[in-house]
Design brief:
The protein is an alpha/beta fold. 41% of the residues lie in helices and 16% in strands. It folds into two domains: 179 residues, Aspartate Aminotransferase, domain 1 (Alpha-Beta Complex); 248 residues, Type I PLP-dependent aspartate aminotransferase-like (Major domain) (Aspartate Aminotransferase, domain 2). Helix 6 packs parallel to helix 13 and helix 9 packs across helix 10. The longest helix has 19 residues. The N and C termini lie far apart (66 Å).
């Protein structure tokens, strides 16, 4: 590198001082995180101060925290230290954000380099190249199995969903209606709260968005009546909606795995049948991959199901650190439709590019990839737990909205579900609290029946960690069952 062909800013990032500073910082990080090797209870001398922190957090936000979780700022892979000195297995990872776990050295290095820019945030008016580098890598991977050509970066999943909706509206002459699956989740803006199928998320909101709900694939019913019958029912339902409101729909939003809805899956043929109807009627096929992206047996779940030829728009987020709307040339908008003061911070954009490269090059995908191996280990541990404690795993009751799944264990890849206590909301809630006390952080999914959900940090987790994790799960379920 010479002074003639680089900027002063580039020289700073490549300087000896920067490299030495990073090396010293990462060496210190490595030393301290090496102390976190197993689950630990809270330290007695920190308990009172931790309670005070929790109270301050609750007062600031106007409501107590859902979980008693405030991090210390340090972890070691799948293990995280809280501010009370306890150490726990993190199997939910910020609802899927921290795929590379806690205190990952490569991620921290890129974040620090990104934060050395002259400003904290990039935006659509003034920006470094970091958001566009992220976009290029993402589009290169997306283009391998689809017609997606363009990418617009934003700071959250709800925002990229809003942007996708605007693209659909504009392309389809403001056709006002949106089709989604029952039990879907889209985010918590005013519009996305109306589209998502959770009544509690729209209490007190004006209902100004026109939404039609489709039944998702009923796996248990398909066992009895056959896959073809379930597909026929769904296709007929969609055609009935389109006859009721001809030429009124701008898009159909597809969750290929229902996230908040219970980690429910469906076969390729189910989606193809519905996407073919959309194609025949000129309705955009929008795949919401904010939770599935990077986590199944392919980087994009639509690739894993061979659906790329149908896809017009895709939204991604969570593990990518910054979020994005991807779209084909046909949905490239006119000027002024998409913009924002912030696309994301320099650190987040650099971290996002690091995540994409790591996923691309890390042997995660395919039937024998790391994600498939971890899912197999999860299933094996869950089945052993069910066999050991069948009293905790009775039949699952159908819920208010969702049909019962066909089995007690499910999901796809790094989206993992187990269903104790018949799917009871009360008992699953007790299990979550008890498991956290015993050293493993989980979350729920489903709207009734309810399930235990894992989105583990498969970027750093080891296969040999699973028995240690399930030892905590077993203790937690035992405590919940005995309460």
């Amino acid at each position: 590198m010479t002074r003639q062909n680089v900027t002063v800013g580039e020289r700073l990032l490549a300087s000896v001082g920067t490299e030495q500073g990073l090396a010293a910082m990462l060496a210190s990080l490595r030393e301290y995180k090496a102390e976190l090797t197993e689950v630990r209870p809270p330290r007695e001398e920190l308990v009172e101060g931790y309670a005070a922190l929790m109270a301050r957090a609750g007062k600031a936000r106007g409501r107590a925290l859902l979980y008693p979780y405030i991090g210390s700022g340090l972890g070691n892979g799948a293990l995280v230290e809280l501010a009370d000195g306890s150490v726990k297995w993190d199997m939910i990872c910020g609802i899927g954000v921290h795929f590379f776990g806690h205190s990952d050295e490569g991620l921290i290095r890129e974040t620090v380099l990104g934060s050395m820019g002259d400003t904290v945030m990039h935006g659509n008016l003034q920006s470094g190249f970091e958001p566009y580098e992220f976009s290029e890598i993402l589009l290169e991977e997306a283009g391998k199995g689809s017609r997606l050509e363009h990418c617009f970066v934003a700071a959250s999943g709800a925002l990229v969903n809003e942007n996708a909706l605007k693209l659909c509206y504009q392309k389809h002459n403001a056709a006002p209606r949106v089709i989604v699956f029952q039990d879907c989740f889209m985010g918590r803006t005013v519009t996305m709260s109306q589209i998502g199928d959770a009544a509690g998320n729209r209490i007190g909101l004006p209902l100004s968005t026109l939404v039609d709900y489709m039944p998702f694939y009923d796996e248990a019913a398909a066992v009895e009546t056959g896959m073809e019958r379930q597909i026929e029912i769904a296709r007929d339902h969609l055609l009935a909606i389109l006859r009721r409101y001809p030429n009124q729909h701008s898009c159909f939003v597809f969750e290929l795995v229902q996230g908040e809805g219970g980690f429910r899956t469906a076969p390729r043929e189910f989606f193809v049948a519905l996407m073919e109807v959309c194609r025949e009627h000129g309705i955009a096929v929008w795949v919401d991959e904010i939770q599935t992206f990077g986590r199944t047996t392919s980087m994009f779940a639509y690739d894993g199901l061979g659906l790329g030829e149908y896809v017009d728009l895709v939204t991604v987020g969570k593990m990518t650190q910054v979020c994005a709307t991807l779209f084909t040339e046909a949905y490239n908008p006119g000027p002024g439709l998409l913009s924002a003061t912030f696309t994301g911070s320099g650190g987040a954009c650099k971290a996002g590019s690091y995540v994409l490269r790591s996923l691309r090059d890390g042997n995660y995908y395919g039937t024998d990839g790391r994600i498939a191996q971890h899912h197999g280990a999860f299933v094996a541990q869950t089945e052993a737990l069910i066999a050991k404690h069948p009293e905790w795993f009775g039949p699952i009751d159908s819920g208010r909205l969702s049909p019962a799944p066909a089995g007690l264990v499910g999901g796809w890849g790094g989206m993992m579900r187990l269903s104790p206590f018949g799917g009871s909301k009360e008992m699953v809630g007790k299990a979550l609290r008890a498991c956290m006390e015993e050293g493993v952080i989980l979350f729920s999914c489903g709207h009734g029946p309810y399930h235990l959900r894992m989105l583990p940090p498969l970027g750093v987790m080891k296969l040999e960690d699973w028995p240690r994790v399930f030892a905590c799960v077993e203790r937690g379920l035992a405590k919940a069952a005995g309460s």
